[in-house]
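Problem 12. The chain below contains 97 residues. Write out its predicted structure in token notation.
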Amino acid sequence: MSDVPHRPRKREAVAINVVVGDRSSINYVMPMVVGPSGFESTLEVHLDTVAIRSSLNDIRLVSAESCRVLSSPHSVLQSSDTFLGSLRTSGSSCLGC
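Solution.
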């Protein structure tokens, strides 16, 4: 690796900015009763007019009118059990991806 004169030795910190509309919501439902094999919770994230930007070169990573993430992870009772769950996403176009 060659030395480059006047090159900073430390990397600048990078921030990811996420901006969502007022009508966005996050819903998490966890059952109060556990069955013999555990329980299934539900996570639903709805982001209205979402924009994700990076401070590195001030670029837009994602811009969408709507983004929805649905998840139904299965919570097991023992750590030796296998994780079972699902994750579905839907939304508008992704710019810069």
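Discussion. Residues 92-97 have pLDDT under 50 and may be disordered. Students who got a different answer should revisit the alignment rule from Section 12.3.
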